[in-house]
Design brief:
Elements: H1 3-24, H2 28-41, H3 46-54
Length: 57
């Protein structure tokens, strides 16, 4: 895995953790901010939202 790939995986993991917290807190503003951040970073939302997290919403 290259440094760039590792960095991307770290970004996705960070988004995943923060998205799970936003879902648990039922925080729509935080979720919207994470989607905006992902777009800025060029990461598709499905890379960090995962179906297992969507079921807890």
């Amino acid at each position: 895995m290259t440094g760039t790939e590792r960095q991307r995986q770290n970004l996705i993991e960070s988004l995943r953790v923060r998205f799970a917290k936003a879902v648990a807190d039922n925080d729509a503003d935080a979720k919207a901010a994470l989607f905006k951040e992902a777009v800025y970073l060029g990461i598709q939302p499905d890379a960090f939202t995962g179906s297992d997290l969507d079921q807890t919403a």
